[in-house]
Amino acid sequence: MELYSTNNPSLKVDFPTAVFNSMPQDKGLYMPQEIPVLDPEFIAQIGDRTFSEIALKVASALIGDAIPTPDLKAIIAETLSFDAPVKELDAETYVLELFHGPSLAFKDFGARFMSRVMGYFLRENEKMLDVLVATSGDTGGAVALGFLGVPNTRVTILYPEGKVSEIQELQLCTNGNNIQAISVNGTFDDCQALVKQAFADQDLADKLRLTSANSINIARLIPQTFYYFNAYAQLAREGKTKVVFAVPSGNFGNIAAGLIAYKMGLPVQQFIAATNANDTVPRFLENGIYETRASVQTYSNAMDVGAPSNWVRIMDLFKGDVAALKKVVSSSSYTDVETQEAIKEIYDTYSYVACPHTAIAYRALKNYLAEQPDHELTGVFLSTAHPCKFPDVFPNDVAAAIAIPEQVNELRARTSAAQKMDPVFADFKTYLQELN
Ligand SMILES: *Cc1c(COP(=O)(O)O)cnc(C)c1O
């Protein structure tokens, strides 16, 4: 597999380089040299395949010989240790549940695959890999649980003290083993600044092999294509093949993966990028001006992104042709009030509890379907997290209906430990230098 930088198509690297660097030096993003198109026969018969079979076919096509098939198969088996069911709410409305993994959010797919791919490439390289992550909540849990127990890796997670939910904090702080959490007396931006400084520090670079596990890593995107194919397979079994996906979007990694699946031949009618008040992309599709803004805080805080990092990948997939892009992707933005109304509507109509991110995708899907003359469309909104991770958003009756998953009770039974730190780089540096 060869990849290029979106800022410089002649800069080419192999898969391990892209995985360990995350980002090219020129600050572009890595994209596969070629998006392989799967044979139409495979798509026509996809309902006969299991999730793992589909994932192996898709991953092999994308990765080529970078990882031999038996090893890739093992990585996929470990990645997909949980299911991604499509559930029917009514004849035209389905929800793709992506929250059955260890951190109860879709980021588990990316984190589990990336950690195991890194672990695989590290087999030949004895030096310990130190993963540094700053998190406002969801990413940290997925990365922690993704790397837990992966040989030759060690993870340090920084999170803002008192600013993540109880369950998120448990996911960060109860792992032990090769995972260490630091609770920073400051904001998420302080955490991110500490991590950035660590990457720029020459003493640390000489001593440690540092990597970031952030959402722009190509190894996080690849496994996210799997569940689009698998969702389509589940619907194809019911004879539904005119599918629309609504994706709750922040950094636009999830929907970028869907669009890669589309370019690989998955016959999707439309993608809807649903955002909260952070509406850089809907504004761009409306007026053609791409203007990033500082992020604003909302109930769907994992989507509070003013400058979506994966947008350049989407533009690259469409070779900058905005008209072609707009035929496949539409986008709309919703306020916190609309989010709460959507949560209530889903609960009242279907007795289903959706997290705030998921509720925005539901709203966008329903609004889109209502405008379509074609009544044979099947709408699927992606559910990116389990509602129990965001307890403060729900009215009491809805909150009471949330079934707490087994994983959470297991976490509550464990000891929680985090090192406390002020947002002072010298302290963080000392901490890293003393790792052994
Ligand atoms: C990360 C996240 C999103 C946004 O996904 P992107 O790939 O950044 O667009 C949406 N919902 C939840 C729950 C998340 O954790």
TrEMBL record:
Keywords: Amino-acid biosynthesis, Lyase, Pyridoxal phosphate, Threonine biosynthesis. It catalyses: O-phospho-L-homoserine + H2O = L-threonine + phosphate. Pathway: Amino-acid biosynthesis; L-threonine biosynthesis; L-threonine from L-aspartate: step 5/5. It comes from the Bacteria. It is an enzyme of class 4 (lyase). Residues 4-79 form the Threonine synthase N-terminal domain. The modification N6-(pyridoxal phosphate)lysine is found at K107. GO terms for molecular function: pyridoxal phosphate binding; threonine synthase activity. Its EC number is 4.2.3.1. GO terms for biological process: threonine biosynthetic process. InterPro entries: Ser/Thr_deHydtase_PyrdxlP-BS (IPR000634), Thr_synth_N (IPR029144), Thr_synth_N_sf (IPR037158), Thr_synthase-like (IPR004450), Threonine_Synthase (IPR051166), TrpB-like_PALP (IPR001926), TrpB-like_PALP_sf (IPR036052). Its cofactor is pyridoxal 5'-phosphate. Residues 87-373 form the Tryptophan synthase beta chain-like PALP domain. Belongs to the threonine synthase family. This is Threonine synthase. It comes from Pedobacter duraquae. The lineage of its organism: Bacteria, Pseudomonadati, Bacteroidota, Sphingobacteriia, Sphingobacteriales.
